Amino acid sequence: MPDLWISNAYAKINLGLNVLERLPNGYHKIETGFCFLEWNDRFEVKSAPRMDLEMTNERIPIGDSNLITQAVKLLQKKAGLRDQYYIKVIKNIPAGAGLGGGSSNAATTLRMMNKIANLGLNEADLLELGAQIGADVPFFIKGQPGIGTGTGTDIRPLDIQPDAWIVTVFPEIESSTEEAYRFCQPNPEPDFSLDKILTGEDPDEWQYLLMNDLETAVFPRHNLVGNLKDQLYEFGAAYASMSGSGSSVFGVFQQDFVAINAYESFHDLGFQANLTRPKFTPDTGIYRKQG
Predict the structure, then answer these.
(1) CATH no. for residue 48?
(2) What's the CATH number where 181 sits?
(3) Is-catalytic flag, 136?
């Protein structure tokens, strides 16, 4: 019986997202704060006669549009991956939610295949490959909170994981990233420094200083997303925002009982929701269970 390799792929949220410039290639120059949620997909990988991918969420396609499939093909083409594996992903992070689930899955695939197949790639190699798959992938390869610049692929590690509870809510709406960026208005000179806000200001001040520039493009098209942000403030959040291009929203709470009440209330209303502890650190280790 072949060994079973196990690892977790974690979700992210964006603490502020400044869209600075629309680039000729269709991408955008941005600045954003990345941190982690205690919301993860579980990977189980073992040797197999042929490469095979199983997702427990059957609505997610496993063909060429899947970032796991893209990561495997990239490793086969550029890193000498020849062995065959069965990859099972127990999917908990909702798709199309602005939580980076697909990018996190791609990063976990790159890291796991590199270790299991002894490909010998270093972090710089993995970052380069990850950037070819998606702008968020390098952040997940680094596995540390930080500031993303450029198109989001340039990550400067910074300890901005909130020392507070985070409640995240998914409204079961898939928000189009392309549409969100198309209808947003870039601002090359934000009023406040993202670094200084996240490292020097209390979360109670963030609502006056920290912006997600994509909200103005998404809220008019998906009223529920904006309504959920308002609801988080009504439940007592010190700060609330949409994550990435949506549709998930999150609230930062200073007190545990207020956060737990908000989480349970959204859960009772039928929403997928997550509660993340203060200063959460993801375990991105790759573990082998011998067959």
Answers:
(1) 3.30.230.10
(2) 3.30.70.890
(3) yes
